[in-house]
Amino acid sequence: MSDLQSPASTGTAGKASDDAPVKATAGGDAPSGPATSGRSFLPQSTLLRHLLVLAVCAVLAVVILEITSPFQNSQLATLTYYAIAAGGLTVLTGMNGQISLGHGALMAAGAYTTALFLDAEEPLPLPVILLAAVVVATAIGALVGVAAARLHGPYLAGATLALAVGLPGLAIYFHDVFGGEQGLRVRAPQSPEWFDGFIDAVSGNSASSTKWLAYVGAICLLITYFFLANLIRSRIGRTWRAVRDQEVAAELAGINLGAWRVLAFVVSAAAAGLAGGVLAIVVRLAAPSGFTIVLSLALLTAIVIGGLGSLVGALLGSALLVFLPPFVTNLGGDFGLSQTEAAQLAPFVYGVVLIVVMIFVPAGFVGTIRLRWMTRKAKRAMAQAGADGASSRG
Amino acid sequence: MGPLAQPTGSQRTPEKTPTARLEMTGINVAFGGVLALTDVSVTVEPGQVHGLIGPNGAGKTTLFNVACGLVRPTSGRIVWRGEEMRRLKPSKLTSLGIARTLQGVGLFPGMTVLENVMVGAHRHARAGFASALFALPTSDKDERLLRERAMRALTELNAAHYAGRYPGSLPYPVQKRVALARALVAEPELLLLDEPASGLSEDEMHELGELIRSVVGRMSVLLVEHHMDLVMRVCDRITVLDSGKQIAAGTPAEVQADPAVTEAYLGDAVDSETDAAELTHAEGGRPHA
Predict the structure, then answer these.
(1) A106, A336, A346, B72: which has the fewest C-beta neighbours closer than 10 Å?
(2) Which tens digits make up the pLDDT trace of B169-182?
(3) How far apart are CA B132 and CA B114, in angstroms?
(4) Which residues between 191 and 250 in chain A have a beta carbon less than 8 angstroms from any beta carbon of chain B?
(5) How many whole angstroms separate alpha carbon A268 and alpha carbon A94?
(6) Chain B residues with beta carbon closer than 8 angstroms to that of A381
(7) Strand extents, DSSP E, A106-157
(8) C-alpha span between A115 and A133 (Å, rounded)
(9) A4 within a domain of the structure (yes/no)
(10) What is the reported pLDDT for A4?
């Protein structure tokens, strides 16, 4: 659903395959801009190009949401908030090489903000509330990011883990405001009239509340990925990757490592905040049990399976996260397992998929495809250079 | 050189006579109780190539790090552009007009050659976060300018046809040229080269020498290098260090004639007539790329 041209970087994943680290890393990254002109029929302007992709994806989203059942609509709504958070994490982990186990907590910040604002007598308009969720999560992300910028690898993971464990605890401590273990019930926002008219005109389906929430999620997802793709394609994305690849060289090029790390953390926190807001209205509940460490880990596995550094990969990984468990449970039921047994099968299969991916396609789905493509292109370029000899110079 | 010193088309910046002088006086550096440098004074004159040589452990790299503010001297003064240099972060170097290459190459493996060099032009970037977030035309224009700048640097180093390739797939000497382009694209007034010739063949070293001579019209160069013939050919002045002490300084001819130098390199058993240029010694082992 995102910009198909968004660069995929497999910096970290690439390093996991010891046999061809250079190739793997190189294969994962697309240039931050068109390296060589020509061959492109898309507009030169990044904005126009990304708006074009955005429009196509918006149409696709409407089609998908209208041909699927209400139950699938709600599944897709779940997908949107996972994908939003995973997209933000892609920037942090894929582009900038930082690991965060605390994004579940940042989502909680967004979710509780949304829940509290929607609880008002006269709630503000939904976009304003979601924006507030983004702002709160961004502020927390900035605080954590400043501390995290000095930490690396396992230490950073540890520090963000503390966030994941500690922040939901606050909800229990201040139970008067946040509702303790029970959490806060979220009043689902009503769909506006224009939406009913729109759905009626497009497909004639009934514009249910579930459908409205799925659309809210899809709109948020598209907007998030549009902005993230813009950043990834720009100097900002390139600088993040420079910091990830070679700290010393980046520093000597005049890049303030700490500031750029904090920036990556803040951007990903903003996405997590929005994801939390969408989660709150889709699930209609903001409770500590919804933001455990499992959520943070699930997001990380999603981006690793999809392909680190790629927005499309983040989307695919999230889709697997949402659709695989019910699929496996159904399959188990078909094979005569009891309800409980079938439900227990899902995490097992998910683990197996993760292991298989790590062994056979360590760069993730998108990373591997891109890698293949880059290798072929490089081979062709090599052959070309060999044939042309010196004449190819300049 | 500000953003306005930007030529169009031609690959050479309009000659601007370099005026910045780097003066290091009475530098002492101690790591714990170990004296790494004792009372060393080096002045890199504008538009000159200054060589820094000496046996292993002589303190060359330490002095080099002092020159770019990475190591704080225990005592002594460093004056750059007429102002005393305080302790500074490495990321502030380029904005002071100092560019530095790393021993080895230190390219970003996950980025194309062009992108690598574009990162080097970081200080010339003008478009900020907001324009990138909204993909505004200013961001596109800024990217185009950076790309052109990077391509000019690559063209100057005869590496433009590698622009779309990834560093890992390129021969080591080409990687070194790209690393040099990344330093040059920042348009520094002082270029610090850390063993640029390591791993190069005779011919490539010769090319490198000519290249260094060609950039001194625009900047001064401080060079740490083991290959004596290269140092003798390209340097205007040379400082010789041994065990943290300055044992000789002067023009290549003066240094070569200095008996203290040959002694430092080969010990006193050697005939002092031995030409230092023949001492291109053991260090030339090719570091792995």
Answers:
(1) A336
(2) 899 989 999 999 99
(3) 19
(4) 227, 230-231, 233-236, 238-239, 241-242, 244-246, 248-250
(5) 11
(6) 164-165
(7) none
(8) 9
(9) no
(10) 37
What's the rounded mean pLDDT across residues B261-289?
50
The rounded distance, in Å, linking the Cα atoms of A134 and A137 is 5
- pLDDT tens-digit readout, A289-308: 899 888 998 999 999 999 88
Backbone angles phi, psi at B271, to 5 degrees: -55, 125
Indicate yes or no: CB of A245 within 8 angstroms of CB of B109.
Answer: yes
Q: How far is CA B80 from each of CA A296, B67, B93, B236, B242, rounded to the nearest angstrom?
A: 49, 9, 11, 19, 25
Lowest mean pLDDT among A315-319, B6-10, B189-193: B6-10
Residue B98: closest CA among B23, B186, B176: B186
CB B112 to CB A31 under 8 A?
A: yes
pLDDT confidence band for A388 (50 / 70 / 90) = low
The domain that holds A117 is classified in CATH as 1.10.3470
Residue A159 · residue A151 · CB < 8 Å: yes
As a whole number of angstroms, the distance between CA B243 and CA A265 comes to 46
Give helix A293-306 / helix A103-118 axis angle, nearest 10°.
Answer: 120
- Position B16 scores a pLDDT of 60
Q: How far is CA A107 from the centre of its chain?
A: 12
pTM score: 0.84
Domain holding A90, by residue range, is 11-31+44-386
First to last CA, chain A: 39
Could you tell me how far CA A366 lies from the centroid of its own chain?
14
How do beta strands B22-31 and B49-53 pair?
unpaired
Three-state DSSP class for residue B238: strand
Q: What is the mean pLDDT of residues A237-248?
A: 94
CA distance B241 to B55: 8
Tokens 């992108």 locate to B115
User: Which amino acid, B87?
Assistant: R
Number of domains chain A is built from: 1
Mean pLDDT value of segment A183-203:
89
| Cβ pair A22:B132 closer than 8 A | no
